[in-house]
């Protein structure tokens, strides 16, 4: 009998596929991926994929973003109901209503949003480039959706802009409290606390660093400290331990689990490669407008990184 990992390797070769996984995925999924990264890095790799098939081991908005950036490829999301509850907190009708109230504002949507919401927005951002994207905009007023906590993080970094937050939030990061941070510090008093900007503002204020999953990983790998307290989804610890062996890592709270990121199993990856299903498709009327917002984000990221 063929082992599951061998079956995936064979099918990946036969299908000419690349497997991309987010840091929050289960360790066995990270292990079979060609690239493990944050949402921006996965989007960038998908944009430049030359393979025929992209398997996106993450949640739906990540697979949709890959499809928007490289529409001729077959993009597979191994478990079709792996979604992001925060992305579902805002609808296209909500964005249209906001535009009526704030006609002069730029609308920036976090990549954690549906393609239909992206289609109503001016530009996308991820947690790693949100500050640079907002700084690049000519408008003084900027609506940021759906994540109110990312909006707060950006508002502090870019005080010259008027940032209007939407009311969405990540149910996983939302659970982390200042008390959790204080308790974790008692156990490891010298360890810096690194959190994701999706955490509540008071948690970000109580931490030593806030950044995307990749930025957290790099802060550990490049920092001189021997121990770190990690305030984001626990899956990232596996990737950090691989990238920075020898560092002591402790998650700030065991509540930091995203159920949707844990849905994909090795069997799902093998099956989707076998059947080329479930594949992502985006209706044409949404695709063209959503692609504009995502492509504009990639262009601003390129321009601001090279200066
Ligand atoms: P990153 O962009 O840091 O990978 O975050 C994605 C995400 O869904 C965090 O909850
Ligand atoms: Fe969405 Fe939060 Fe899960 Fe990230 S961790 S995918 S924001 S629910």
Features:
307 residues; Rossmann fold; 3 domains; 4-stranded parallel β-sheet; 12 strands; binds 1,3-dihydroxyacetonephosphate
Could you characterize the architecture of this molecule?
The chain is 44% helix and 16% strand. It is of the alpha/beta class and 307 residues long. The strands form 3 sheets. It has a 4-stranded parallel β-sheet, with helices on both faces. Helix 12 links the parallel strand 11 (227-231) and strand 12 (248-251). The N and C termini lie far apart (54 Å). The structure holds 1,3-dihydroxyacetonephosphate and iron/sulfur cluster. Iron/sulfur cluster is lined by residues 59, 84-86, 112, 170-173, 198, 233, 258, 260-261.
**What is the architecture of the largest domain at the second tier of CATH?**
3-Layer(aba) Sandwich
CATH class of the largest domain: Alpha Beta
Helix content: 40-55%
* Beta-strand fraction estimate: 15-25%
Overall pLDDT confidence: 97
| Side-by-side strand order of the widest sheet | 2-1-3-4
Amino- and carboxy-terminal Cα gap = 54 Å
Structural class: alpha/beta
Low-pLDDT runs of 5+ residues are none
Q: What number of domains?
A: 3
Bound molecules: 1,3-dihydroxyacetonephosphate, iron/sulfur cluster
Query: Sheet bearing the most strands, described?
Result: 4 strands, parallel
Count of individual beta strands: 12
User: How many distinct helices?
Assistant: 14
Q: Nearest-angstrom radius of gyration? A: 19 Å
Morphology call: globular
CATH topology of the largest domain: Rossmann fold
């Amino acid at each position: 009998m063929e082992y599951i990992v061998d079956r995936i390797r064979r099918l990946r070769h036969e299908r000419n596929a690349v497997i991309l996984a987010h840091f929050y995925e289960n360790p066995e999924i990270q292990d079979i991926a060609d690239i493990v990264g944050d949402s921006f890095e996965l989007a960038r790799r998908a944009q430049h994929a030359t393979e025929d098939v992209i398997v996106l081991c993450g949640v739906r908005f990540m697979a949709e973003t890959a499809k928007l950036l490289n529409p001729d490829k077959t993009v597979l999301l191994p478990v079709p109901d792996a979604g992001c509850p925060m992305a579902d907190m805002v609808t296209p009708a909500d964005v249209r209503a906001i535009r009526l109230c704030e006609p002069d504002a730029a609308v920036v949507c976090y990549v954690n949003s549906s393609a239909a919401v992206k289609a109503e927005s001016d530009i996308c951002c991820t947690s790693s480039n949100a500050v640079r994207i907002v700084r690049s905009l000519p408008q003084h007023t900027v609506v940021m959706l759906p994540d109110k906590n990312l909006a707060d993080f950006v508002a502090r970094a870019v005080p010259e802009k008027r940032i209007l937050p939407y009311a969405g939030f990540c149910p996983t990061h939302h659970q982390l409290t200042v008390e959790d941070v204080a308790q974790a510090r008692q156990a490891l008093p010298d360890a810096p606390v690194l959190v994701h900007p999706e955490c509540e503002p008071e948690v970000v204020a109580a931490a030593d660093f806030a950044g995307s999953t990749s930025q957290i990983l790099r802060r550990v790998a490049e920092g001189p400290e021997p121990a770190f307290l990690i305030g984001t989804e626990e899956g990232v610890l596996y990737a950090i331990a691989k990238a920075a062996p020898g560092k002591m890592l402790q998650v700030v709270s065991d509540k930091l689990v995203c159920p949707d990121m844990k849905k994909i199993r090795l069997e799902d990856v093998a099956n989707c490669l076998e059947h080329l299903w479930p594949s992502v498709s985006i209706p044409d009327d949404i695709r063209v407008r959503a692609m504009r917002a995502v492509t504009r984000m990639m262009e601003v990221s390129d321009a601001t990184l090279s200066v």
